[in-house]
């Protein structure tokens, strides 16, 4: 029995070397939700394009790489003071 998948579920792209990706594929590649991709586009953080008005929205590989570079977070370094062990 086939299950029905939501149209907003991120999916793995058929071709990982493709120059363009739709929003579901972009979400899968960025390890985020479909809605996060839409919010990034609406906020102007992730450029996109449409070939025809009302058509499929696509994101280029270069734009996705730039978005990832600008928005990735790094671990905060904490300074740990080590105390000398006393031999007993």
TrEMBL record:
Top-rank taxon: Bacteria
UniProt cross-references to InterPro entries, sorted A to Z: DNA-bd_dom_put_sf, HTH_17
Pfam families reported in the protein's UniProt record: HTH_17
Helix-turn-helix domain location: 22-69
Protein name listed in UniProt: Helix-turn-helix domain-containing protein
